[in-house]
Design brief:
Structural class: alpha+beta
Strand content: 5-15%
Number of helices: 2
Helix content: 10-25%
Strand order of the largest sheet: 1-4
Radius of gyration: 15 Å
Number of strands: 4
């Protein structure tokens, strides 16, 4: 998460981003995915979701609780975040119906 600190061996989930400049207009608005200097987890020379280990900024990692199966956490990192962001943006709540295709 944003202010998280992790140690080697910590259980974390990783999305698509590894790095963004942090100072361009997009990064300043929280739109790191639009940064022209962004680096993706599957960029040239990186194995993305198939890697055993990855180095990235801590703000792009999310903790996975001990005991939670990694095979269940994995799909939440990309697909789950992709669906969650617009739900948050449009203030979807408990009483809203959502269809995901």
């Amino acid at each position: 998460g944003i202010n998280a600190e992790y140690m080697g061996g910590d259980r974390v989930g990783v999305g698509i981003l590894r790095f963004a400049c942090g100072s361009c207009r997009y990064c300043c608005r929280g739109e790191d995915n639009l940064c022209s200097q962004r680096t993706l987890t599957f960029s040239l020379g990186h194995s993305g979701a198939f890697a055993h280990h990855v180095r990235l900024e801590a703000k792009y990692a999310l903790p996975v609780p001990d005991g939670y199966p990694l095979e269940l956490a994995g799909p939440l990192m990309c697909a789950g975040c992709t669906v969650f962001e617009p739900m948050q943006q449009y203030q979807m709540g408990m009483n809203h119906a959502v269809g995901v295709v």
